[in-house]
Design goal:
The complex is a heterodimer of chains A (706) and B (367). With 706 residues, chain A is α+β, with helices and mostly antiparallel strands. Chain A has 21 helices and 30 strands. Helices cover 30% and strands 26% of the residues of chain A. In chain A, 43% of the residues are buried. Chain B has two domains: 89 residues, no CATH class; 250 residues, Bira Bifunctional Protein, Domain 2 (BirA Bifunctional Protein, domain 2, 2-Layer Sandwich). The chains are: A alpha+beta (706), B alpha+beta (367).
Chain lengths: 706, 367
């Protein structure tokens, strides 16, 4: 909202600070001035940002009240000024008003003005509206807006001649129709509160007036309404009908019970000033005592200055104290002054020094408890006048249980060239079905951001595929990513969360003497998973499946740690690649990070380095494709030669044409390294071990190429 | 190798003769196909090595008055040749720079993975508080209404709920409100979970991912990250909150940074404050980044509202624990900040969407 300083100052005759200083001081006290502009009526226009709980300050008089408290200057009285009682100029009866919904409407005031001439607003109203950029409608309507901007009380004017009988404030009849000021026709429900006459609903109470009873250019006679409505009822109506208005904004946050007659006086006075006419009869003011007791006449609450000090701590003044007479920043005098200026009535209880009974102002329904008053003291005192202290602390520091494991995962993958990415938490129903396990279940959102984000992700793989595609579609053809994040399974009844990990790789894999270009990406990913698993306790093993459907058949693997499947990985299936328009092979991995996090990190153990020379022996063989490396490795380890240090494949070769190596076969150069910790190996040892090695490999079906 | 006979025994002539041998040895080391063992045999071999031949031809045959001069030079030559052999064997023959190295060509290196700027920023913030004695607290991303709202003093149908547009899990209508599941809109529910599990004193720093039903634009994302803090003990004060955050901001942004506090409103704290830091780009003079105000708004905080402690006590009783958060004795403060905004400010990231795109061109800037 906007505040004109000229208008504001009309309530603060003794205020001497300039607008700039005023803006800063208000801002530091939570009545934030976001922008400061020259106003066409003179002075400045402040663009305000006021927190939702301070609806009392969302008008000129409210800001003036804050200003008076900050500078300790007098505040003009509304009740003795613009909102003073208006005497009737023509005799008449009070307009009949009946509150039926006594739980939802606490007060209703009405006043009749007859013989108006409706034209555009003039004078102060027109000048302020121009400065505020407020759209003028007609003098009576503008005056109601003026009243709201001046003091926060929403009011309404009816064309009196459209009313049939007196005012009835009641719940709507279910299905009752009402055309509102915005021209729309609404169907009401029984929980809506309406201002009606004896025959029909006139307006949606506290939200918007009705079309048929509105003031037009031809209106001659007016009924002025100012009322107090129950916050939650107005909020429910406003939400139900999707109507957020200035009036509903105010009422749903708690209006000032005592402001209704003031608002009515103000509007009545200005309507007559602007549009002429006679004020007929007295102001009718119907009050529901039960609601008055809960708002304007609340029981005083206790405030103890020692509680103020216990919560707020040390002020700069306290911190600077060096002995002598103590002047605490938060003395009884300060508390009395600030709360008094905000409209609280303080009475010392006399029981204990610094203990008060505090009568709460009717316009501050947000104040209910001692802590609310403590906040007010701190706020007006100024937050930045408190010292910076540090709390003493006894207590243990608890390490998050998986912090080290998570760090190890991140560091390992980063060191292998994988960058961390974060993708959407949501996925489509289609992808949730394809990438999530049917048994684990997936969770639908009630109000999804979009159809593509209809489910909580049961896997990080679809998000990873999306990120690979994002890059490939922008001609970034070399990608290595990982994501460590939460995945969601279960059902909408019970959602289960665990930490997942996905790897994604495409492009620029390097062929080696072991792997051809088309397989290199798979083996690079496998290498990353091997390194990752090696960080944790347990024995890793890899096998070919079974694998989920998103992996191309024959192009993927599982990783097991002590027999537990901890990862699946492989090339994204051809159909999925096609669906995502991926032009190059992508390898993805899904790692059950939760399974890794449960494990201890591997504690390195040092062993002595042999003083004796290691000897390498290479064996060149041709094997049928059916012989897997694992069999070769196991066969050689099975020889039980204690001096075997390492068994590695050095080179693997297949000949597509079947010339150098027959089709269905491959040649492998196998290197075995022997070393003893106790002695230098002899030619006899090596000869015997080589023979055993050759025999074992031949036993697997290999042909020795000497 | 052809060894010329020495005729002239002047020092200059001797130097020239020895230099020519030395050059020949050096050339042999640098020649392609050099093999250390062969060089050793050829030059240093005891019977047929070139040095043996030189010794015979020059030193032994020299007139007595020249022996000393030749002897010194011979020993120097021998050392040099041995030096060539050692250097070459170690593969460390220093070739002249003119031999074709273009030192301006880019060096080669392995691809390095990059820490995500959000993860890095979050870890840095958490680290600041860990050094102040805070433990790390974590909680689920799908929360119940109780933890996300009710216990944090957001009553049902309260306008404050409007400020946090919530993504909800489907099919919750049949459950009581407090059990309905939603994506947590802030990390604050972890405060409640922690207080239900632990008695005071408590010092927690809570990093995590949160979600709101916000349309994505350059500064909004439905997914974002927060770091939350909670400190609860006897006699924790507002000035402790101020001091803690002032210290933390100086630790994170540098000791020259100043903080200032404004009244604000959060349902779960009272008094509540917004905190600004002096602009880290202009030092407070005013620039484009701070919209010429000299200040940047960074976090929200406040004293834990007694209603929160009461909700915790109530729930603790339901769970069979003692209601140890006695508001007559216990007080505390809480604070929270948006990690995305801090990372964007720190690294000059113009679009929050980049953080969630997995775009390599973006991520590699943080290598």
């Amino acid at each position: 909202m906007n505040i004109l300083t000229k208008w504001l100052r009309s309530y603060l005759p003794e205020l001497s600070v300039d607008d700039r200083q005023l803006a800063e001081d208000l801002t530091l006290r939570g009545i934030a001035v976001e922008g400061e502009f020259d106003a066409s009526c003179g002075g400045s226009r402040f663009e305000m940002d006021i927190t939702t709980n301070r609806v009392d300050a969302m008008n000129h008089y409210g800001v003036a009240r804050e200003t008076a408290a900050i500078y300790d200057v007098p505040l003009a009285s509304l009740a003795e000024g613009i909102a003073a009682p208006v005497a009737e100029t023509a005799k008449g009866e009070g307009f009949p008003v009946r509150i039926e919904a006594r739980d939802l409407c606490g007060r209703f005031t009405a006043r009749v003005i007859r013989g108006v001439t409706v034209g555009p607003a003039k004078g102060l109203v027109a000048g302020y509206f121009a400065a505020l950029g407020q759209k003028p409608i007609s003098a009576p309507v503008d005056v109601t807006n003026f009243g709201w901007l001046a003091m926060g009380q929403p009011t309404h004017v009816f064309d009196l001649d459209t009313l049939e009988g007196g005012i009835v404030v009641r719940r709507a009849k279910a299905g009752e129709k009402l055309r509102l000021l915005d021209g729309t026709e609404r169907t009401l429900v029984a929980d809506d509160l309406v201002v009606a006459d004896e025959k029909k609903a006139l307006g949606l109470a506290g939200v918007m007036g009705g079309w048929d009873s509105r003031v037009t250019e031809t209106t001659k006679n007016i009924l002025v309404e100012a009322a107090w409505f129950d916050p939650s009822a107005i909020r429910a109506s406003s939400r139900r009908h999707g109507l957020h208005t200035d009036a509903s904004h105010r009422f749903e946050r708690g209006a000032d019970f005592n402001a209704a007659p003031l608002g009515n006086n103000l509007v009545t006075r200005l309507v007559v000033e602007q549009a002429g006419g006679e004020v007929v009869g007295p102001l009718v003011d119907v009050i529901v005592p039960e609601i008055q007791a809960k708002t304007a006449d609340r029981t005083p609450i206790v405030l103890r200055v020692r509680e103020v000090q216990r919560h707020l701590g040390t002020t700069l003044e306290d911190a600077a104290w060096q002995g002598g007479e103590r002047t605490s920043g938060l003395s009884e005098a300060i508390v009395e002054q600030y709360l008094g200026a905000l409209g609280c009535g303080l009475t010392a209880t006399g029981a204990v020094a610094g203990e008060y009974g505090v009568k709460l102002p009717s316009w501050r329904l947000d104040l209910e408890r001692e802590i609310d008053l403590i906040e007010e003291v701190a706020r007006v005192y100024g937050y930045n006048k408190f010292a910076d202290t540090l709390p003493a602390f006894a207590g243990a520091v608890v390490e998050q249980p998986h912090a080290e494991q998570e760090r190890a995962i991140r560091e390992t993958l980063c060191s292998l060239g994988f960058s961390e990415a974060i993708s959407s938490t949501f996925t489509s129903a289609e992808e949730a079905a394809m990438f999530g396990g049917a048994a684990a279940g997936a969770v639908a959102m009630g109000n999804p951001l979009s159809e593509e984000a209809g489910m909580l992700r049961p896997s990080l793989v679809p998000g990873m595929a999306t990120m690979l595609a994002h890059n490939l579609h922008r001609d970034v053809n070399e990608v290595r990513l990982f994501e460590l994040g939460t995945v969601f399974t279960g059902s909408t009844a019970e959602v289960k969360e665990h930490t997942g990990l996905a790897l994604g790789a495409t492009g620029a894999a390097i062929a080696t003497s072991l792997y051809g270009a088309q397989d290199a990406l798979f083996y690079e990913t496998k290498g990353a998973i091997e390194r990752l698993l090696a960080k944790f306790e347990g024995t890793a093993r890899f096998d070919a499946g079974p694998l989920p459907a998103w992996i191309e058949p024959g192009r993927g693997a599982r990783a097991l740690l002590d027999g537990e499947v901890v990862a699946v990985f492989g090339e994204l299936s051809a159909s999925e690649s096609q669906r995502r328009k991926l032009r190059q092979t992508c390898v993805l991995a899904e790692v059950g990070a939760n399974l890794l996090l449960r494990r201890a990190l591997r504690q390195p153990v040092s062993r002595d380095i042999s003083r004796y020379q290691a000897v390498e022996r290479d064996f060149s063989f041709v094997f049928p494709d059916a012989v897997r490396w694992q069999q070769i490795d196991e066969a050689l380890r099975g020889l039980g030669i204690a001096e075997t240090q390492r068994i590695t494949p050095v080179e693997i070769f297949r000949d597509a044409k079947g010339k150098a190596v027959a089709a269905g076969h491959y040649s492998a150069l196998v290197r075995v390294v022997f070393q003893s910790n106790e002695r230098t190996l002899t030619e006899e040892d090596l000869g015997s071990w080589s023979d055993k090695t050759v025999t074992a490999l031949v036993g697997l079906g290999g042909v020795h190429r000497a | 190798m052809n060894i010329p006979q020495l005729i002239d025994f002047t020092e200059a002539s001797l130097d020239a003769a020895f230099a020519s041998v030395r050059n020949e040895a050096e050339a042999a080391v640098a020649a392609p196909g050099f093999e250390a063992e062969q060089f050793r045999l050829e030059w240093l071999g005891r019977k047929q090595g070139h040095l043996k031949a030189i010794s015979d031809a020059w030193l032994k045959a020299a007139p007595p008055e020249a022996k000393k001069l030749i002897g010194q030079r011979f020993n120097a030559l021998k050392e040099q040749v041995e030096g060539f052999l050692i250097a070459a064997s170690a593969g460390a023959v220093v070739k002249p720079a003119s031999a074709g190295l273009d030192v301006t060509l880019p060096g080669s290196s392995q691809r390095v993975g990059v820490e995500h700027p959000l993860v890095k920023t979050m870890a840095e913030i958490v680290g600041v508080f860990q050094r102040m004695g805070y433990s790390v607290g974590l909680g689920p991303e799908v929360e119940s209404d109780f933890y996300n709202f009710e216990a944090l003093n957001f009553p049902p149908n309260h306008p404050a709920r409007d400020t946090q547009d919530t993504l909800v899990v489907a099919e919750q209508e049949g459950k009581p409100l407090r059990e309905r599941l939603l994506m947590r809109t802030h990390t604050s529910p972890v405060q409640i979970r922690s207080m239900l599990e632990q008695a005071p004193p408590l010092r927690l720093v809570i990093p995590g991912k949160v979600h709101r039903n916000d349309a994505a634009d350059a500064t909004h994302s439905p997914v974002f990250h927060q770091v939350e803090g909670l400190c609860v003990d006897t006699n924790i004060t507002f000035s402790d909150l101020k001091g803690t955050l002032d210290h933390a901001m100086k630790a994170f942004f540098g000791s020259a940074v100043k903080t200032r506090f404004f009244p604000s409103f959060f349902p779960f704290t009272e008094p509540s404050a917004d905190v600004q830091i002096s602009c880290i780009f202009c030092g407070g003079k005013g620039c484009r980044k701070c919209k010429y105000s000299g200040w940047i708004e960074l976090l929200g905080c406040g004293m834990v509202d007694p209603a929160v402690f009461e909700a915790v006590n109530q729930r603790r009783i339901e769970l069979g624990h003692d209601p140890v958060y006695d508001t007559r004795r216990i007080s505390g403060f809480a604070f929270g900040m948006g990690v995305d905004r801090i990372a964007m400010m720190k690294y000059g990231i113009s679009d929050i969407g980049l953080l969630y795109s997995g775009d390599m061109r973006f991520l590699e800037q943080f290598a």
